[in-house]
Amino acid sequence: MFETDRLQLRAIREADFEKVLALWNDPRVQKMMSRDFVVPSGGDEQFRAGLLSALLFVIIETKDSHEFVGVTFLRLFDLQKKNRDAMLGLAFLPEFWGKGYATEVVRFIVDYAFEQLALHRVSLAVYGNNTAAIRVYNKVGFVQEVVQRKANWIDGKWQDVIWMAVLDEDWEASRKDDLKIVS
Ligand SMILES: CC(C)(COP(=O)(O)OP(=O)(O)OC[C@H]1O[C@@H](n2cnc3c(N)ncnc32)[C@H](O)[C@@H]1OP(=O)(O)O)[C@@H](O)C(=O)NCCC(=O)NCCS
């Protein structure tokens, strides 16, 4: 189990699948996570297998009251293995948005990805209207690399799909800068 200031990140248990499914079935969440049709899912075997096949998939809870906040994950697809390039995902229940939790979690996961998992890149795709997520990723050091223009249809409009990444060397440099500020 991992801990940040206010949260704990732990392995998924049998009883969590329903909560993760409910999170996914919230249209405010699913439309920001998927390029597919946004429709309710019954959570079949493929859904479960998808969660379990991630390099890292954790349930996020509040430290004090153990409330289910959401999930975060790193996926290392076969074609990305040689280059140690994992895809980051995260989603929180809307009642927990705007408390700084995503910033706390993404900082932890990026540190963990480079320090413990020996990754070279952490990549992600975010939709152009996802202002909160883009703000979080910028704060943590992700850099925009590619924009697929008007590539995803959300709420009656085309949105850009923005690819962002942070490299191990960017992360090293930012840590050295932090040390300089402290010393
Ligand atoms: C994206 C998501 C994880 C963000 O979580 P969160 O805990 O609310 O994020 P934080 O509170 O750490 O930070 C959000 C930042 O965006 C800013 N923000 C939020 N909405 C904003 C808006 N409409 N315009 C400008 N800034 C906005 C906040 O002020 C905050 O920045 P600050 O710390 O500098 O003030 C959450 O909204 C979510 O689960 N969304 C649905 C799933 C999703 O989008 N996943 C990401 C897919 S790429």
UniProtKB/TrEMBL annotation:
Domain N-acetyltransferase as annotated: residue spans: 7-169
Top-level taxon of the source organism: Eukaryota
Name of a matching Pfam family: Acetyltransf_3
A GO molecular-function annotation: acyltransferase activity, transferring groups other than amino-acyl groups
PROSITE patterns: GNAT
Keywords: Acyltransferase, Transferase
InterPro entries: Acyl_CoA_acyltransferase, GNAT_dom, N-acetyltransferase
Family: Belongs to the acetyltransferase family. RimJ subfamily.
Cross-referenced PANTHER family: [RIBOSOMAL PROTEIN US5]-ALANINE N-ACETYLTRANSFERASE, GNAT FAMILY, PUTATIVE (AFU_ORTHOLOGUE AFUA_3G00765)-RELATED-RELATED
Protein name per its UniProtKB record: Acyl-CoA N-acyltransferase
